[in-house]
Amino acid sequence: MQRQPLGEAADRQKIQSLLKGRNPGWMQTRLCALKMGLSASNTKAFIAESLGVSERTVARWFTVYRQQGLDAVLKRGYGIGRPSGLNSEIEAYLLKGLENARWNTAEQARAELSLHFKRSFSYHQVWHWLKKMRRGISSPLPRA
């Protein structure tokens, strides 16, 4: 039984033109997988091995492509993984504290956050948030 190619002629042209452009590596990998999937002679296992991803990942990209189209495959799913716990209220509180140089250490910031929001925050989590937020502020970063 002959395998059916993955997509239509219009998608083939769009994928070809996108591959010629400057794209991030993750997008190039997905575009290459789709281009290879457009040929009925390439198996998912061959595509996965060629691109250095799992066969299951290739199958997921193809399923998304069939159900939702090319744009859905080229959209990165940042919702996957563990949430950081940083919401807009906590972010605003930390930014205000950094701008006012309220803390000398990240531990002081962690303790104040815990008191203010009445929940527990890990030191590592607070340090990471402060480090990311510090990029746009001229005040020094609290010590470790």
Model description:
- This protein folds into 2 domains: 9-73; 88-136.
- The protein has 144 residues and is mostly helical.
- The protein is 60% helix and 0% strand.
- The model has no long low-confidence stretch (mean pLDDT 81).
- 17% of the residues are buried.
- α1 runs antiparallel to α2 and α2 (25-37) crosses α4.
- It is built from 8 helices and no strands.
- It starts with 8 loop residues before the first helix and ends in an 11-residue tail after the last helix.
- The protein is elongated, with a radius of gyration of 23 Å.
Summarize the structure.
The chain is mostly helical and 144 residues long. It has helices at residues 9-20, 25-37, 44-51, 55-68, 70-73, 88-99, 106-117, 123-133.
Shape: elongated
If you compute it from the alpha carbons, what radius of gyration comes out, rounded to the nearest whole angstrom? 23 Å
Low-confidence stretches at least 5 residues in length (pLDDT < 50)? none
Structural class: mainly alpha
**What is the CA–CA distance across the termini?**
63 Å
Strand count, sense and closure of the main sheet? none
The averaged pLDDT comes out at 81
**How many discrete domains?**
2
